[in-house]
Amino acid sequence: MNRFRLVLCTLILASSSSLLAQGPDVMYLRFNEGTGTTTADLAIPGIGSTPTLVGTCGWVTGANAQLGAASLNPGTGANDSVDTGVGLNVTGDWTVEFWQRDTFVSPIWPVPARHVLSDGTNSGLRAFHQNILGNPNLDMTFVPSTGVGGISVPQSIVPNQWVHFAFVYTASNSTINAYVDGVFAISQTYTSIVPLATTAGTNLRVGGYVGGASWDGQIDELRIWNSARSAADIATFYNQEIALYNNNLAVTDVSAPVSPSGDCVLAGAAETVTCTVTNFSGTAVTAGSLVPIEYVVNGGTPVPDFILIPAGDLGAGASLTHNFVTPVDLSAPGSYTITVTVMQLGDQNPADDSDSTTVVSGGAGRITSFPWSEDFDGLNSGSTTPPFGWKQESGDSSGQFSDWIFRQGQAATASTSPLGDHTSGSGIYAYVEDSSANHAAVNLRTPCLDFSALTSPQLSFWFHSQDASLGLNSNPMSIDVIVQPAGTVTMDVFGPEANIGNGWMARSADLSAFAGQTVQLVFRGRSDGGTAKNDTAIDDILIFDQQPTPGQAPVPGTAVLDLNAATNGNGSPVASAANGPYFATSSAGGTLLFSFEGETNRPFALLIGPLNPVAATYPNVGQLDIGGAVNPMTGIPAFIQVLGDGFNPLDFFDILFNTGPAGTTTMSFPTPAIPVGPVGGFQTLFSTGNGFFFAISNAVELTII
User: Fold this and answer.
1) Count of other CB atoms within 10 angstroms of residue 53
2) Could you please report the per-residue DSSP string of 258-320?
């Protein structure tokens, strides 16, 4: 704590008295006047009520008053009540409290309902008991607004005795709890949010309603709050007047700075911090007073300032706006929580001294560190809520299936959706549903991607698109790039592509044209290809900065080798299609999982040799990255062995070394007990139909750990 705050806190502690309760903030009528035709509303800040006694409405003093010097006696006439001069419309949490004493003692009770509260009608907000001829009903019923069912507290009214009622509404579970004399009595839960609201165009009345029956007895201590008072608060304060603070300045709003509008926009280097300070005490703060105030960013060093109270004082319930002299620098991307604290000398309620705001500079979830990946795992299956920072575009389409869906397992259209995700088979993937939909664009946008430190950004992902109608009803997917904050769009950095077969396939896009910029990617699916035959799915998205490496790159669809999820020197997986060589590990007793991808129904040979990038290069075929020196007679590097191949149709095992109708195959072996260290490099020679007969895959070096 700095010296400024330490000295101030010492002075505050030395001068403060015992803690007081924060008074009601909507309406507080004590009815202590005992004379006259008006009563004071002591709520801070209140809603500007001007309570006036109407008709024969008057006072009860002395022994029959409940709390304080007097209580309200609504009178006997049809219109006798207190007109507060204002209507109510409290949304969210609220609390209503009052004392009442029913003095009607005749054994034959009148038929009309008797009202403690009403909105001037007999159908809106009201608190009453319904007297039935010859059968006294001692229930207190409270109705918070028009069209809402009331809550009744059975047999809670005791004739000729004071009884306190409290009705507390909590919006989070839409429940009203009723209390009698500080003790919980009954609750009622609603199916929707319940406001505390008078009928439009009417005022809140205390003790009766226009043209109806007034309360037959006394009323005292009406308190209305825009918060849900706790059971402890009700029990502690129901039987005493609430003493108002003499000193209580509160920060009620931090209105600036705010998050910049638009995607990926950075905030400024000199943003003004603006707040609202409200006087929640019953005493004015004198003009010319200097009140210390400070702000803190993300829990850092306080930035001090002073408020100069303007001419005319800062009265009870009044507010002022304060702009800090020292601005805040939010030019770097990130999330900033700015907390403002006012430090009035002798403040009696520190709980409301601070308020905060959060500013996001550069876009929510902005990505600045690479490689960066997203596998969608952890999302709820069937949900359309994307990962943090991602968003479903709202202007692309509307209606059923107009957003990407995050799914575990097979989707509704079994003949076209994946069986499971690519990551593990049991995780989550993203897809566009092609059932009962006809959307030309279903767009999923990534967070802001800050490529300022990248020289050659690349995208790799896994793609699933099977048209069950054999290409007649395809829904192609594309990827667009939006350069921010200008909003410039480059279409189709990938695609459009569709109907690649029943399986996950690796795909990539070169984003090097956007190096040094901030962008968002848009995965643009569609579902208007015709009959519901072609879902589109994506998974395991990776963005990385490709650095030059000397090895052969995988050739998707032609020559790809993977082993135990190998990565290259940049940390990029084989699916990235980046240059090799790649590196994999295993341990004794583990598993060696080889994955091969080439043209359909093509034999291939699996080679092994010492890793040696650029051992030999063959135009239009590829580059061998294993072996020793090149034999000048054969042009083949030394020390290369063939572990297996599919080029001998008479050999039964040759059928294993074939890509099959899907163009992919896998082989799994237990890792043998061999010495720790590098085993060698693997590379695959695939047969092709492109006129050059062969294609060489990337190399993968295996190390035993």
Assistant:
1) 24
2) -PPSSTTPPPPSSBPPEEEEEE-SSSPBPTT-EEEEEEEETT---EEEEEEPPTT-B-TT-EE
Q: Is 156 helix (H, G, I), strand (E, B) or coil?
A: coil
Task: Please give the single-letter amino acid code of residue 400.
Answer: Q
Mean pLDDT computed over 424-430:
94
Burial class of residue 414 in the structure, from the number of CB atoms within 10 Å of its CB (0-12 exposed, 13-18 middle, 19+ buried): exposed
* Whole-number Å distance between alpha carbons of 329 and 313: 33
Which of the four pLDDT bands, split at 50, 70 and 90, describes residue 6?
very low
Tell me whether the omega of the peptide bond preceding residue 485 falls within 30 degrees of 0, making it cis.
yes
Where does 177-279 have alpha helices with state H? 231-237
Distance, CA of 458 to CA of 573 (rounded, Å): 12
Answer yes or no: are the C-beta atoms of 459 and 521 closer than 8 Å: yes
Positive or negative CA dihedral for 667, 673, 678, 680? negative
* Amino acid sitting at position 74: P
Tokens of 698: 């990337």
Cα–Cα distance, 299 to 341 (Å, whole number): 12
What sign does the dihedral 623-624-630-633 (CA atoms) show?
A: negative
Q: How far apart are CA 700 and CA 683, in angstroms?
A: 7
The per-residue pLDDT for 2 is 45
**CB < 8 Å & 24+ apart, contacts of 179-182:** 179/231, 179/234, 179/238, 180/153, 180/156, 181/238, 181/239, 182/234, 182/235, 182/236, 182/238, 182/239
Q: Is 10 helix (H, G, I), strand (E, B) or coil?
A: helix
Distance CA 206, CA 72 (A): 9
Alpha carbons 186 and 152: distance in angstroms, whole number = 8
**How confident is the model over 321-331, as pLDDT tens digits?**
999 999 999 99
112, pLDDT greater than 70: no
Query: What is the residue type of 255?
Result: S
